[in-house]
Write a structure and sequence with these properties.
Elements lengths: L2 E9 L2 E10 L4 E6 L8 H11 L3 E10 L8 E2 L1 H17 L8 H6 L4 E2 L5 H76 L6 H19 L2 H20 L4 H20 L4 H21 L4
Parallel strand pairs: 3-4
Antiparallel strand pairs: 1-2, 2-4, 5-6
Helix pairs in contact: 1-4, 4-5, 4-6, 4-8, 6-7, 7-8
């Protein structure tokens, strides 16, 4: 689900701001952006987010705004000497390689440090900001989930209405098929009734039985309608239960689509074909909405 949340804390480095953004994705895809001073907190931040969010593309951005009187960054002489030695080795081995720039030096981990920033204290401050932001993000996603649930409930109602209309029109559709059946039977029985055929009465009866059976099988969609209703009931139950419902609803959409396809394959009238198409459109719309749910 989509959502945004942020939290801020004063630290020895300056004012820490932690932002969380999430957009739709079938799986958890987590990206991190943070200053080098906070790289030591990355592992715990990732673990904390993964423990609370199962699906979605999530971006965690942590920044530090230094104010007046905050500790100024300083160069770490030991790290700088180590980097210089490495640069000399590279220059001797690969003379054609361009020398490192000032920006390269300053971005090298450990070269720039801020006095007075205790790692344990920073981790605690980052964790506190993260917990606050995750709670706000969860609330944002909860509100979106409620809105999506309302949409999905309405689409469940559409499926029920399409199925109900199909059941209501069944007698009319069957009557139309019976008329077609009579036409085919007349064509099949014409030679026998006119005496121009050697068909026996038993053979004629068997032909009639075959034709009736064929159309009966074609028109019998009662089981598909019942299974549609059962799946819709389960969708409603899952939505009411809440929690991480995305994968369960994905499966139910597959089952609903299976029944809609079966209806289409058994259609003996254009109305049944149209109903199958309408069902598949609604189910696809539901599937798109479900991708927004965790």
């Amino acid at each position: 689900m989509t959502g945004f949340a942020s939290a801020a804390r004063p630290t020895a480095l300056g004012r820490l701001t932690l932002e969380l953004r999430s957009v739709n994705s079938r799986f958890l895809d987590l990206s991190m952006k943070m200053p080098d001073d906070l790289r030591g907190t990355e592992a715990v931040v990732r673990e904390t987010i993964a423990a609370q969010i199962a699906r979605g593309k999530v971006e965690c951005r942590i920044s530090i705004a230094r104010g007046a009187g905050e500790s100024e960054p300083q160069l770490n002489s030991a790290a700088l000497e180590q980097l210089a030695a490495l640069a000399s080795q590279v220059a001797r081995s690969l003379p054609a390689v361009a020398p490192i720039s000032t920006a390269d030096v300053l971005s090298w981990p450990g070269v720039v440090e801020t006095p007075g920033a205790e790692p344990d204290v920073l981790r605690a401050q980052v964790s506190a900001a993260l917990i606050e932001a995750l709670a706000a993000l969860a609330e944002s996603r909860r509100r979106e989930g409620l809105a999506l649930s309302t949409i999905l409930q309405a689409q469940c109602k559409q499926i029920e209405q399409i199925a109900a209309q199909l059941v209501e029109r069944a007698p009319e559709l069957i009557a139309a098929v019976e008329r077609k059946l009579n036409e085919r039977l007349e064509k099949a029985l014409g030679p026998a009734l006119s005496g121009a055929s050697t068909l026996t009465r038993e053979e004629v009866s068997e032909r009639i039985r075959q034709e009736v059976t064929l159309y009966a099988l074609k028109m019998d969609v009662d089981e598909e309608i019942k299974r549609l209703a059962t799946h819709v009931v389960e969708v409603r139950r899952v939505l009411r239960a809440g929690g991480a419902v995305g994968r369960r609803l994905d499966f139910l959409m597959q089952e609903l689509n299976r029944e809609a396809n079966t209806l289409g394959s058994k259609a003996a009238a254009i109305e049944m074909t149209n109903a199958s198409v309408e069902l598949k459109i609604v189910i696809e719309q539901m599937r798109e909405q479900i991708q927004n749910l965790e």
